[in-house]
Amino acid sequence: MTYDPPARRLSDADTSEAHRLITEAYASPAAPAAPVPPVPAVTSYRDTAPLPAYGATPPVVQQGRPPMSQRATDISAVMLAGSVASVPVGGITCLVLWTLDAVDPVNLAIGAGAPVAVLLAAGALLKRLAGVHTEHHHHYSGPVHQDLSTTTTNTARGVVAVNRTRHDHR
Fold first, then answer.
1. Cβ-based neighbours of 32, under 8 Å, separated by 6 or more
2. What is d(CA 96, CA 111) in angstroms, rounded to the nearest whole number?
3. Is the CA virtual torsion 8, 9, 11, 12 positive or negative?
């Protein structure tokens, strides 16, 4: 449904007033009183440049900082995670040193060095565990039957328990 306003014809005085206002709006500021023919206003623009290609087109280098490689991105993510992980350790160290303010310097050194020692020990443990493989192989010299059974016990019904065993034969 469209709305068509009733056609209304302007009087000659209204037409001349509209023409005067439009001429004034497009007049240059140097000569506001001189009538200037109306300048067409640009209300739209169509870019006639060809559209960019999609698919196997290589990326275009942009101005500014060059993009980071994947390795640099991974390293910066590790550094960010490490810096965030050091905040609790620093807070704990600060708290320990604050509570040990009335003791001798040896105890202060032990209190400041303990979190660092714990971090170094944890790092060495994690480095040692990096080489541990959980994959194991079984070698048999005869026929093998492997039975993977799953037993589910449902005790939600009160005193009566329901056991269901699912046998997966491979």
1. 24
2. 6
3. positive
Pairwise CA distance, residues 141 & 25, whole Å: 99
Contact 32, 21 (CB under 8 A): no
Answer yes or no: are the C-beta atoms of 157 and 170 closer than 8 Å.
Answer: no
Alpha helices in the chain (DSSP H): 12-26, 70-99, 105-129
d(CA 112, CA 103): 13
Q: Which residues contact 103 (CB under 8 A, 6 or more apart)?
A: none
DSSP 8-state code for residue 49: S
Binned average pLDDT, 10 residues per bin, the chain of 170 residues: 68 89 78 63 78 73 77 87 83 78 74 82 83 75 77 72 66
Q: Determine phi and psi for 24, rounding to 5 degrees.
A: -65, -40
Length of the chain: 170
